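F.,

This is the one I mentioned.
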């Protein structure tokens, strides 16, 4: 897959629309939330147009990561539709309430506050943009690593009917139908419905269910008023997704240490017996985007949204039939947001000021059932974490001369986090919330209700020099921050008695459960250019980032009131430093090589990041200890890269397009503590696409192959085994395997990326 192309030119690292000159070199961009020439934008961005995604047979938003430098987008461990996102070393893979994302996800400019249901399937899409580096000024507090923007199609002025059908391996059967029509000269209505299905890549040998299957209904409806030359555009949209795929079970990489269950031959097979509650995701939302041109220089925009999602998911940590480390969970999220923007554009000064408000509730409820270790013991957690945020922001660019411009911006954020956390043990079965027959045992180990406020100003500045209209050299500084919060898995009775008075006060419990915001100061220099008459489009960026108060959430085996369980251990570990370089290029190698009008292009992307902790303080035996030299930055391979060869030619009266992509990622650490059992060594994947498009472009048919070498690679995992608290080394027991810390079987469970898939897609449009 390669980023969007404008005729012959690839606008690498840009946020594009479809506007281009005859040579495909002038692209309009909206990276700073206003329309600009791509060469004027001092930000590293990669964009994928809807057409490019269709040509590549992209299935969901995670597919774009293979050709985006220094970016990881993956389905979260043990789920089907929760997103783990990392850009330039910054991200978050823990989806429970209380922890914020490090990469902002946007659907039509609406920020998705939680990662549940954020693995967006690709249908009816205009483009997907990936903005790398802190975007706190224009996109908010939790875009500390970057932002991913999913933009759906605007309704056309005329009647339109599109249909797409796909069939492939693993009985993949997808269908998408889009319809829109003008109701009068000002009003248009439209919608899309998608049915996306696939059998599992493997099987749950205990329940008989398919593993890694897909069963999704999704739809969107849109009403548009104005636009297309009118001074006002009102866009009202709603979307709904229902995911009833089976639970995604992990693959044990060691035998059962008590049962002797062998390691399964097929990495997509599993044995976990937990299937209650049934896996189920409902996600829906409403939005209204309004744009009004108040004058030739001033435009007012309003973005109003309400979103809600509900997820039930059973996670069997040890992936074995026994009820041990079985965790039925529920996530319930709701948000209301409002944003106003006032844009100004004159000959030399352009920019915007804005206001943003978010009111969000995130509720996480789960059991931890460890019946084998302690018959009938369940630790139930209900964590309700609410967020209320206000922000004012502005960003302006002034052209000092025709060649030299400066940009300054900033955002001030007021952030309040409140939490209500209950943790209660049950005996005799699971908690009543998940249908168990257990009865409360003892006092709650956590019964917390508290709030904290955070305030932060995040500035941004850049300078750009254009020696000619086709070249731009820039330098920028930006700051981002991610809000603090409360660990929903923390155990209040384990809070230290800081003043040695024999009582754990509310303040001491709050201090134990809470963590501070983290910040990144990022410096970037870059070059963007179109060379040789548009035959080569190039973007290169070098960056340095100083990352402080790094939030490290996690969970470990522990004892609560003398009973085994697992506990949250979130901390602000210290400092990290990131430095690296990214490059993207598209070269038109030749035209008219084998026939009139044919084209041969090569697209290259590459990223290198040196990511290391400078300080990582953890509590070992009651003593704060810096273990930075033994820790790694998770989900951040040192090298990422891809090479795409694309050939286009006329076939009869139509067009035949062939492309093939090799993508490489170096070794990836799943957690900060290296783990040779679940960390993923470097690997490469190979994709290929062959698409024929009819002369009138009314229909097309394509053959697509993903991961053609059938490479097995781990994307995430769970671990509950003994590790040296300083070095992280995993000692082996007398049986030659790691020593379990929770449950007798030992938990080292891995989840894998998709195997080889081959499918045919046909499209038709009226």
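My design for it:
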């Amino acid at each position: 897959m390669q980023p969007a192309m404008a005729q012959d030119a690839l606008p690498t690292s840009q946020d594009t629309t479809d506007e281009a000159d005859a040579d495909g070199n002038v692209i309009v961009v909206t990276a700073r939330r206003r329309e600009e020439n791509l060469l004027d934008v001092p930000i590293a961005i990669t964009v994928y147009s809807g057409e490019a995604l269709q040509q590549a047979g992209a299935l969901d938003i995670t597919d774009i990561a293979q050709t985006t430098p220094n970016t990881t987008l993956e389905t979260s461990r043990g789920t089907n539709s929760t997103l783990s996102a990392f850009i330039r070393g910054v991200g978050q893979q823990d989806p429970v309430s209380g922890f914020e994302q490090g990469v902002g996800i946007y659907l039509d400019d609406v920020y998705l506050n939680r990662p549940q249901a954020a693995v967006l399937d690709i249908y009816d899409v205009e483009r997907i943009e990936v903005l790398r580096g802190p975007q706190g000024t224009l996109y908010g507090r939790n875009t500390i690593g970057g932002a991913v923007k999913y933009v759906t199609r605007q309704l056309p002025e005329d009647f339109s009917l599109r249909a797409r059908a796909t069939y492939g391996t693993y009985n993949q059967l997808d269908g998408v139908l889009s319809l829109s029509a003008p109701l009068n000269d000002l009003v248009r209505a439209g919608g899309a419905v998608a049915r996306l299905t696939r059998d599992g890549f493997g099987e749950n040998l205990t329940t008989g269910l398919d593993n890694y299957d897909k069963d999704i209904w999704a739809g969107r409806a849109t009403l548009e008023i104005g636009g297309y030359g009118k001074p006002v555009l009102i866009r009202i949209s709603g979307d709904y997704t229902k995911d009833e795929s089976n639970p995604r079970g992990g693959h044990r990489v060691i035998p059962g240490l008590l049962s002797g269950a062998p390691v399964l031959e097929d990495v997509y097979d599993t044995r976990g017996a937990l299937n209650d509650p049934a896996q189920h995701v409902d996600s829906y939302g409403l939005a209204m985007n309004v744009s009004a041109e108040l004058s030739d220089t001033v435009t007012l925009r309003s973005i109003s949204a309400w979103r809600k999602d509900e997820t039930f998911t059973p996670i069997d940590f040890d992936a074995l039939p026994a009820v041990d480390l079985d965790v039925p969970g529920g996530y319930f999220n709701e948000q209301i947001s409002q944003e106003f923007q006032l844009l100004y554009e004159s000959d030399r000064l352009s920019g915007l000021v804005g206001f943003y408000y978010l009111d969000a509730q995130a509720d996480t409820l789960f059991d931890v059932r460890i019946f084998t270790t302690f018959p009938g013991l369940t630790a139930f957690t209900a964590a309700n974490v609410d967020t209320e945020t206000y922000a004012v922001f502005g960003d302006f660019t002034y052209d000092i001369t025709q060649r030299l411009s400066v940009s300054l911006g900033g955002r001030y954020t007021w952030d309040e986090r409140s939490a209500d956390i209950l943790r209660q043990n049950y005996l005799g079965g699971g908690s009543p919330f998940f249908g168990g027959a257990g009865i409360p045992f003892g006092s709650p180990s956590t019964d917390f209700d508290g709030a904290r406020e955070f305030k932060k100003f995040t500035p941004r500045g850049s300078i750009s020099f254009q020696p000619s209209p086709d070249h731009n050299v820039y330098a920028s500084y930006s700051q981002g921050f991610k809000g603090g919060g409360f660990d929903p898995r923390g155990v209040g009775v384990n809070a230290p008695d800081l003043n040695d008075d024999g009582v754990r006060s509310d303040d001491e419990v709050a201090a134990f459960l809470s963590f501070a915001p983290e910040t990144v100061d990022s410096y970037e220099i870059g070059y963007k250019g179109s060379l040789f008459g548009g035959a080569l489009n190039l973007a290169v960026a070098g960056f340095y980032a100083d990352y402080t108060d790094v939030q490290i959430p996690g969970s470990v085996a522990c004892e609560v009131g003398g009973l085994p369980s697992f506990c949250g251990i979130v901390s602000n570990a210290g400092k990290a430093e990131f430095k690296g370089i990214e490059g993207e290029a598209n070269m038109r190698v030749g035209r008219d090589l084998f026939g009139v009008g044919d084209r041969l292009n090569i697209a290259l992307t590459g990223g290198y990041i040196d990511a290391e902790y400078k300080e990582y303080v953890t509590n070992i035996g009651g003593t704060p200890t810096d273990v930075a030299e033994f820790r790694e930055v998770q989900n951040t391979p040192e090298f990422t890269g891809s090479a795409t060869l694309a050939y286009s030619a006329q076939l009869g009266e139509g067009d035949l397009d062939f492309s093939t992509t090799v993508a490489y990622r170096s070794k990836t650490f799943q957690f900060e503590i290296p783990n040779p059992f679940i960390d993923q060594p470097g690997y490469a994947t190979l994709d290929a696409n062959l698409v024929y498009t009819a002369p009138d472009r009314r229909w097309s048919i394509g053959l697509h192959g993903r991961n053609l070498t059938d490479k097995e690679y781990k994307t995430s995992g769970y671990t509950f085994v003994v590790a040296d608290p300083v070095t992280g080394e995993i000692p082996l027991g007398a049986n030659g395997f790691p020593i379990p810390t929770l449950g007798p079987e030992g938990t080292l469970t891995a989840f894998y990326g998709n195997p080889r898939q081959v499918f045919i897609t046909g499209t038709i449009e009226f």
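DSSP finds three helices and 45 strands in the chain.

Talk soon.
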